[in-house]
Amino acid sequence: MPDFPRTTRRLAALRDRMAATGTDLVVLGPSSHMGWASGVHPHGDERPVMLLISRDHAGFLMPSLNADAARKDTDLPFYAWRDDEGPEAALAALLADCGATGPGLSVVLDETMRADFALRLLDALDTPRRRFTDDTVGLLRAAKDAEEYAAIKAAHQLNDAAVTAAFAALKEGVTEREIQALIEAFYTDHGAQLEFCSICFGASSAFPHHYSGDTRLTADTAVMIDTGCRLDGYPSDMTRSGFFGTPSETYEEVFATVERAVQAALAAAKPGTPARDVDKAARDVIAAAGYGDRFLHRTGHGLGIDIHEPPYIAASSDAVLAEGNVFSIEPGIYLQGAFGVRLEEIVILRADGPEIFSDLPRDMIRA
Prior knowledge:
With 367 residues, this protein is α+β, with helices and mostly antiparallel strands. It has helices at residues 4-21, 32-38, 64-71, 88-97, 115-123, 137-142, 146-168, 176-189, 249-268, 275-288, and strands at 25-28, 50-54, 58-63, 78-81, 106-109, 129-131, 193-201, 221-231, 234-235, 238-244, 300-302, 309-313, 326-329, 332-335, 339-342, 345-350, 353-356, 365-366. The chain has two domains: 4-141, Creatinase/prolidase N-terminal domain (Creatine Amidinohydrolase, Chain A, domain 1, 3-Layer(aba) Sandwich); 146-366, Creatinase/methionine aminopeptidase superfamily (Creatine Amidinohydrolase, Alpha-Beta Complex), CATH 3.90.230.10. The protein is 35% helix and 24% strand.
């Protein structure tokens, strides 16, 4: 069922941000931003679809052939247009109702919008000043509310069970694809959808974004499983590493180093802390162990409606962490031709530090 009160709350919060940032108009394309603000997830193609929000009005520019299907999800007005007439008149009417007709308006554009949509909008305005959503929609989305927390928690509890079942199913000769299929079936059987899944045996685990293949599991082999489902609109994401057989001393050393890096990043993550400092905390541990050049990616990414969204936990990030932020902590060490180890938690930042969504221990899983 549509949640009109939630839309009302979110639009009110957005208008508060618009007032605080001197923003006259927010323009969202058919994206997760639009879904967050309105509950509408329209079909996106070459036909212009936009949600325009001003301080006292909001409405959808929508092709007529899609408008009726979208009306059930919102009580906001539609400015529909037909293929035989084009969107210009409907857009002009929507802009007029938004009061967006004067020169030099401060306009926030959805950074994920198609370029032709954005240019059409900007061409319809008089010398607008434009920026992206970082301090409006993006900032609000980054602070998860109680409903979002509950949805993300439920997705992670299901993910815990799926990963546990996957490690329990490891046996000599099984392929990466077969374990991925087991995980996908587990999600489906429990009312979720596969968001992504990377099953990595042996040297495959040295590739951070390995695609599950036909590699068969053999004795004394490293295993890394990075997977997530989508449940009730929100995703999970978790990586666990383990060993099928007896791990080598090198594997145990690398695993212990990655675990220390996770702990260092968790300890560094506090409201008001620059995201880059959390990345540095993890990276310093791995560098001190001699594997600095084998940590091949950032320490984390935000998670919400999108599996990857701000804040990004990276050395290049200017973000400052805030209470309610949800993000990953996932340092890794990758030894080409041998194995890789990554341990990933998704956390929500509380006043006193991070709370981990997963209940599955990070201990080395031995199968």
